[in-house]
Write a structure and sequence with these properties.
The radius of gyration is 18 Å and the shape is globular. A hairpin with a 4-residue loop joins strand 5 and strand 6. Helix content is 46%, strand content 13%. Strands 1, 2, 3, 4, 5 and 6 form a 6-stranded mixed beta sheet that branches. The chain contains 10 helices and 8 strands. The longest helix is centred in the middle third of the chain and has 21 residues. By secondary structure, the chain is an alpha/beta fold.
Length: 287
């Protein structure tokens, strides 16, 4: 069986097991888009397809019911959902009551809500996060995205862009990764701050690339621990991505155990993980 077809079958089987999606797409265009998304998922090589995220509601729940659940659970975190996106350079669509949208929102919430509930009390208020934007068909300057920080509107944005084709735990990693970019901006007023304390943790000879945007559109695979001091290949694209990647792996249960194993023999990576634990603890303690 060709690799791309196998990826699609795996994703469809996962959805069936989780009971979080509607029937498979029937049009040829939808099927091709689904398969293309599966092929382009940068986390597929590091995915544990056995990881499951429980539905947040019965399979037949309406979009309105799903939105009410999200509103209540986020309110407990002192956050509020937003169902549309309005900001320069960003575009997205709102969920409708279609069967496809109900399934997409169910899957998105099954990952995003428990991810946000992993944080200590006070972290969101301390960083000024007020809204979680939940949309579909997100793009930034015309580039398809699954998530993005939006500190200018006190938000992080998460999207169902054929999410059913992707590694579920990889999507959770993105939830934390993008929130760390938000944290970094609030700490330093800069997404790309070259933190000297962080750079000092790198092994000699560590060199970064030209930023995370240069990884897009190349069939990039985010392999884990490619060299000492780096948790992932994407982390090599810039110190801002290095920080966000360590944070994402640290906060995502499906990836945290691998990070734990690597830190046992990689002192630089251990120091980076401990540095970000300190940041998270300071944000929570200072609330």
């Amino acid at each position: 069986m060709p690799a791309c077809r196998l990826l699609s079958c795996l994703a469809l089987a996962l959805l069936s097991a989780c009971a979080t999606s509607g029937p498979p797409a029937t049009s040829a265009a939808d099927a091709q888009a689904f398969e293309r998304a599966a092929q382009q998922d940068s986390m597929r090589s590091e995915c544990d397809w056995n990881v499951r995220y429980a539905p947040v509601a019965p399979e037949d729940a309406s979009v309105a019911q799903l939105q009410a659940i999200a509103t209540a659970r986020l309110a407990a975190l002192q956050l509020a959902p937003a169902w549309t996106l309005s900001m320069p350079g960003g575009a997205a669509h709102a969920f409708t009551e279609s069967e496809q949208d109900r399934a997409g929102l169910q899957l998105l919430l099954s990952i995003v809500l428990p991810a946000m509930e992993r944080y200590p009390a006070g972290v969101f208020a301390r960083t000024g996060l007020r809204h979680v934007v939940l949309v579909k068909d997100l793009s930034v300057e015309g580039q398809r995205r699954l998530a993005m920080p939006a500190p200018e509107i006190d938000s992080v944005v998460y999207a169902d862009n054929l999410l059913a084709a992707l590694c579920p735990s990889g999507m959770e990693l993105r939830v934390h990764h993008e929130y760390y970019h938000f944290i970094e901006y609030r700490l330093f007023n800069d997404f790309y701050y070259r933190d000297p304390a962080w750079l000092a943790l790198n092994p000699p000879g560590t060199a970064y690339g030209q930023g995370g945007a240069t990884a897009y559109g190349k069939g990039f695979q985010n392999l884990g621990h490619p060299q000492p001091g780096l948790v992932s290949l994407y982390g090599a694209y810039g110190p801002e991505e290095d920080k966000a990647e360590v944070f994402g792996w640290m906060m995502t249960p499906a990836y945290a155990l691998r990070l734990e194993r690597w830190t046992a023999f990689d002192p630089a990576l251990l120091a980076k993980r401990e540095k970000l634990r300190e940041v998270l603890g300071t944000l929570a303690d200072s609330y």
